[in-house]
Description:
The chain has 451 residues and is α/β, with parallel strands linked by helices. The chain has three domains: 6-135, 3-Layer(aba) Sandwich (Rossmann fold); 144-314, Rossmann fold (3-Layer(aba) Sandwich); 339-391 and 399-444, Helicase, Ruva Protein, domain 3 (Orthogonal Bundle). It is built from 18 helices and 16 strands. A five-stranded parallel beta sheet has the order 2-1-3-4-5, with helices on both faces. Helix 17 (424-431) crosses helix 18. The radius of gyration is 30 Å and the shape is elongated. Mean pLDDT is 85; it is low at 390-403.
Amino acid sequence: MKAKGSILVVDDEEIVRDSLARWLEEDGYQVDTAPDGQAALAKLAAQAYAILLVDLKMPGIDGLQVLAQARTLQPDAAVIIMTAYATVDTAVQAMKQGAYDYLVKPFEPEELSLMVGKLTNTQALRRENVLLRKALKRQCEFKDLVSKSPKMEAVFELARTAAKSNSTVLILGGSGTGKELLARAIHAESLRREGPFVGVSCAALTESLLESELFGHEKGAFTGAVGSARGKFEIAAGGTLFLDEIGDISPKLQLDLLRVLDAREFCRVGGSQVIKTDARIIAATNRDLKKLVDSGSFREDLYYRLNVIPVTLPPLRERKEDIPLLAEHFLAQFRTEMRKPLESLSGEALEMLMAYDWPGNVRELRNVLERGAVLARGPILTPLGLELGPPTLPPGAPTDTPDSLREVERRHIEVTLKQHNWNITRAAKALGIDRVTLYNKIKRYQIREDE
């Protein structure tokens, strides 16, 4: 059997060293032993270890001194302190100096196995995270958009080509797919990058307000117009005007916009002076414009005027291979913004994200991770801090399935506890978590043995 990792056991009692070595070897680890701190430091200088299991009280160089030296010799090695003198002071001192955790003698083999197993999984995630970050740099990137999906690579390639022209671009995609980010990326790659990027949400304003917002107005054009104001077409001169949710504009504004796109000129509301515009137009919508044209609610001539270079962003459920990359991308942002040591997702958390269909797409993923980052008490995000909506059921699935992933987890824990007669150690091992996490979940979900 291939060894899971290398462990150095440091204890001045031979029977303890031999017992620990035997337990860990049975679990599949490669184990070395040292009878004192001096011998441990010599081994640390000669060979790399993933985990150090160090007794606190030893003659000569004690456990805390070994811990301090290990921080210098092997900063990536995790140190577990063993002590029969479990005072708050020694535990706190060890944790402050960088110990991963501590065990109070005597302890059961299962307790050691769970702790070392959890630590090994965490280290594997960190190594994977480092590789992921390196891979992320090699993946297809387009400004703030990252992906390794072939579909998105095609989108980026088309967007780069579109950026080199002044042609109108129509970005299609569901809510939260990153339409505005793509529009900004196209602007940043274009010859207009030094000019302004001006965005307008066409769905957020009434017809009269949107008209004034786009074209500006003259003093007295309507009640409250105490002075003249430039519109977005003027402000975006030399740059890009992004019209979001273009499918929601009224028939009158559709005609006005068509005239501007054709003639590249307009008048302010209440004015007669003709104003030229050279703003490059990028429009976006989450609606099917072709269906709107067929139903008569969107002008066909405007549709073809906008649809010069159509770019379609696929939903996140169609490119789930991007979820780990996006998660790392967002966690890197949160590390800086929140000044928290956020490293990665736990295996359970990543599986949870991969199993979800993401109706809110990338925006929903970011929001879920941001909430998890705020609530995180350590460097690894676990399912406890990630709240998702109800999963999408496949056709023919039973209708009595739980409504949320939380309920799925609750029922799974209940079944596992019953299967192991409420033996917390065995149930935690079966679930792949430690006992403290299981106790927290039992408390959180208010699971009682009498149920």
